[in-house]
Structures are given as structure tokens and as C-alpha cells.
Amino acid sequence: MTRAMIFASGLPLTFWGDAAEYSTYIMNRSPTNLNPKRASPLEVLTNKSPDLRNIVVFGSHCTVYRDPSKNTFARRAQVGTIVGCSDETKGFRVFIRKENKVITTQHVKNIETLSEAQNRQLQLALDDDGRADSDEGTETPVRQSSSITASEKPKKKKQWTRQPHVTRVKVILALASTWGVPTKHGDVSNAYVKAKKEQHLEILMHVPKGMTIDTRKLKELGATKIEDVVLELKKSLYGL
């Protein structure tokens, strides 16, 4: 699929990485006979049907909105080439030839491989996703009467959540599939990290390279050389 994408799009071979990533993106969301009920790999993993509305032909030309900043007469739309979809943020990865860089944006219109009706449908889907994102963590508007009134600014509660990087998750899943190891999601509480080692658990380790042990200490342990000695773990090595 990657080879077909590159040659059909007419893009240089420097975009083979984008084509490989996009083909993986599509295959993870495509039905396959290897899974029960021809479910896609992503559906098996999440138990949800993946959204396929944002899948378009690799290398499709489109117009992208660009912020003109303070330049009033600057172009607000530029021609770009779609080279994939982003997993980290919602939107397309678009190559802007004039700027010679790849950006991620939802402000994509006039995709040449889609009809006018399909372009409108895609734009509605992107707008819905954008509104869904903006609804999270926004301030509640204060309804005012026709006269001007003063009201206290709503307090916004900040919430921080640590999210794993999508690329790291992909690597973990790929290694687990290669080694035939089942993967499970879990969390470690901060209290466990600071807890003492279990009494019944005995953890031994080889003497690290460069560490020296006094000759008298070796004799007390009944050893003649450092290779005959092991170290017992007393405290947690979390983070090392």
C-alpha cells in the first residue's frame, strides 16, 4: 500500500515515511478476515467502531487556511497536499509546498478527490470534532439582559492528566504482538512508589561494574573474589 500511495500521488520518495504511517493508519481501521466478524484491529482494541470520515486519498490537493497575521493583503488560503492524518491532534497532515513544511490542521477545504457534497460532509465532521474539543474545559457563559450588567468572571478549574504518547503506545503494541505477550492497561499509585519493599520479597543483584568491596568484607562473607558476592535490594529503585 505504501508503494502504491507514493507512485500514485506523484510525491517524491522523501514522503515514504508519511505514506507508511498513513497506510498503517488506514489498515488499523479497515475490516479484516483475521478478526471475528471482520472487525478492524482498532475496533478489537477499543471495542468501538473507528471513524472513517476523515480518510481521503493520499496526495490529494486541497486548500488550507493560513493565518495572515498582521499582513492584511497576505493570502489566507494556500494550496496543500494531504500526506496523512494525525493521531495526536485531530486534523490532516498537509504539505505546504510554498513553505516547504508539513502542518497539522482541520482548516482543509476543496479536496480534489472528493465531490462537492463529500467536501461539505467532511467539513461538517471536522467542525463537529472542533466543537467537541472546545466544549472540554471551557467557561460557562453568563446570560445577560438587554441592559449592561457587571458579573463575576466564571472560575475555570484546571485539570491536568498525563497522556501517553501515541507513538510509544504503537511501539509497545507492536513489540507485544511480535513476542506474543498480552497487553493490559494499568496505573501505579504514587503511594506504591514510596512504599517499602515487601518483607517476603528477596531481590538480589550482581555487583555493578566499577564497585569495589573491601577484602576484609569479602572474608567476612566467606568469599574470595567479588564475583562470588551479590547485593540485596533494601529500597525501591523506581525511576532508575
Model description:
- Helix content is 29%, strand content 13%.
- The two termini are 41 Å apart.
- It has helices spanning 2-9, 16-27, 41-46, 116-135, 166-179, 190-193, 215-220; strands spanning 61-65, 77-85, 92-96, 101-105, 108-109, 204-206, 230-232.
- It has two domains: 2-133, no CATH class; 195-232, no CATH class.
- Helix 1 crosses helix 2.
- Residues 132-151 have low confidence and may be disordered.
- It is α+β, with helices and mostly antiparallel strands.
- A hairpin with a 6-residue loop joins strand 2 and strand 3 (92-96).
- The radius of gyration is 28 Å and the shape is elongated.
- It contains seven helices and seven strands; from the N terminus they run H-H-H-E-E-E-E-E-H-H-H-E-H-E.
- The strands form two sheets. A five-stranded antiparallel beta sheet has the order 4-3-2-1-5. The protein has a two-stranded antiparallel ribbon with strand order 6-7.
- Residues 141-150 have a biased composition (Polar residues).
